[in-house]
Amino acid sequence: TDITREVADMVITDDNYATIIDAIREGRTIFANLVKFIRYLISCNLSEVIVVAGGFLLGAPVILLPIQILWINLVTDGFPALALGVDPPEYDVMRRPPRDLSIGILHAKRWMYMMIEGSIMGIATLVLFFFASSRFDYAYAQTMAFATLAFAQLIHAFNNRSTRKSLFQIGLLGNKPLILAALVSILLQVVVTQTVAGNHIFKTITLDAQKWLLVGFASLVPFAVVELKKQLRFRILP
């Protein structure tokens, strides 16, 4: 029995063959969540690279300080990424054909989508920074860019719950840990922006309602573009 267990690809510990179906469903869910986790983190890190490199190439002053980038990576990236790892299975997880085992997790098509999504978040942040720079002081523009990138990445976590279905189809409240992670990250981001201690540590400046509206609009642009991409890919294009 021990030798059989060692050489077997699958070991059933009960006499119910329906267990095989449950095991396949669990395996597919784990793999899908692994992909969501990786897609989210890589696309978010690409957006940060685009903001920093784009600002340098365009001759802008420093858009994001090192401590601000570290904050985004640890808080507004970390909590939602962990929550994506426990996302519930999609309704049609057992209707899909088996995946090709010769294709890795990060194949060319997935890299393309991650680069597109990261570029959208990065470009939206850059556009807002230059728009704010032309109307407000540099400190305001930098803080608005910092908040925009953080919130855009938080919203992007919900987009990553499915690469095929709209968030409005799969349900906004389907992943409770992600909701909690987003709320905690939003609260912490507001603290580092709107409090004296946060302003001192993270070199931010308090934003008024008008500036928060601009941040909110820019943060939603990546979400809208990704939702449109899903519709074009699965509803209009063959």
What does this entry look like structurally?
The chain has 238 residues and is mainly alpha-helical. Helix content is 72%, strand content 0%. It is built from nine helices and no strands. Helix 2 packs antiparallel against helix 5, helix 3 runs antiparallel to helix 7 and helix 7 (176-194) crosses helix 8 (196-202). The longest helix is centred in the first third of the chain and has 40 residues, at 18-57. The chain is elongated, with a radius of gyration of 21 Å.
How is the secondary structure organized here?
Elements: H1 2-7, H2 18-57, H3 66-84, H4 108-133, H5 138-159, H6 167-170, H7 176-194, H8 196-202, H9 209-236
Helix pairs in contact: 2-3, 2-4, 2-5, 3-5, 3-7, 4-5, 4-9, 5-7, 5-9, 7-8
List keywords for this structure.
about 240 residues; mainly alpha; about 70% helix; about 0% strand
Brief summary:
With about 240 residues, this protein is an all-alpha fold.
